[in-house]
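Minutes, project check-in
Item: structure for the 463-residue chain
Input as provided by the requester:
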Amino acid sequence: MSLRIFNTLSRDLQPFTPLEPGHVRMYVCGMTIYDLCHIGHARMMMAFDVVQRWLKSSGYRVTYVRNITDIDDKIIKRAVERGITIRALTDEMIAAMHADIALLGIEPPTLEPRATEYVPQMLDIIKQLEAKGLAYKASSGDVNYAVRKFPGYGKLSGKSLDELRAGERVAVQDGKDDPLDFVLWKAAKETEPDDAKWDADALGYGYGKGRPGWHIECSAMSCQNLGETFDIHGGGADLQFPHHENEIAQSEGANGKPLANFWVHNGFVRVDNEKMSKSLGNFFTIRDVLAQYHRETVRFFLIRTHYRTALNYSDAHLDDAHTALKRLYTALDLVAPAAVSIDWAESFAARFKAAMDDDFGTPEAVAVLFDLASEVNRTRSAETAGLLKALGACLGLLQGDAKAFLQAGVALDEAMIEQKIADRAQAKVAKNFAEADRIRKELLEMGIVLKDSASGTTWEASK
């Protein structure tokens, strides 16, 4: 079966064929970078990390662009509060993001454009829209997009203009011709710092000092780096409307071509049935979570749920993920994996491929890994262990040292543990089973589980 992807635009699974044979061009809306990233942000970046990994495993060359929004109201507000420049704030937060997601094994995109580097390209698009009657300068000084003049507005979100009007909560303001219109260029305010302003007149445009609206940023960065039409546009489900809807209106309004063939959206992370977000205050930063859990446990937790499904965050679910991942690493600790090249016709590999080709079906793919682990435990086959590790690599899993993972998190001296294991062995030889049991219990209370086998006793962390 060839790769099929759920296309939000068509609302069904569609066979995937790139516009350019052998080369996939993908754009994903990245972070608005004013604070540390939380686990909801990690879920989005992880979803598309898996997508690009599988595309590469399928033999495609991938140009993956994930942008950074480094100018907006929240960024300006935070920089002013801290008494630093916008650039100083965003540089700091970008570095923090890179450090955090690297620990989760999220690979860097091919390109990571910053919005502030593409202001002239944004102004070019705005000028094209104005020339076509799709943009106008308001009395406030803002330049707005005339939504009703773009046929097909709402096709991505499935929202009609009448439905959008019925849901209005505010009157026309700031010189908008229509409440549905959105800003392309925001006129500068006296109270804003100088580094939040660009002089569009000095750049050759007649819009005065200001800064770009959020939506126009992605239109400029995606088209500049991937062309006016590319293969996949991705992001969180919360971006489907209005952000992605507005990107379509801007880009297609300007150049008359489809922006992307496939629109792909990942589900939310939820806490107590509410979306995790900074505005609700129910978020956990990646650093918070990594302080408690092994980084591969967190990756496994994020991957084993299908990317379009809402993911429930809790310590219980992370504990369960850690226990499950230990089962896979236990098999790799039992048998040293042989170096293998994946034969996709082999039964386990074929099942794994069928799962991933069905809209990146990680739950079914992970189930294949567990079946392989059971086969390793049964057969003690180094080739089977090698296949388990090789298929795990397609998801960015199981590439660490098995024993190191199983023993991670134990803040005890390894020599002391080994001495107690030796003392227990001597007690068993002397038939002092009460002492042997006492040592096992003592180690368990320290977070150490002993495992006896014909080849001797090994240990791992209890959690």
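Outcome recorded: The mean pLDDT is 93.
No further action items on this chain.
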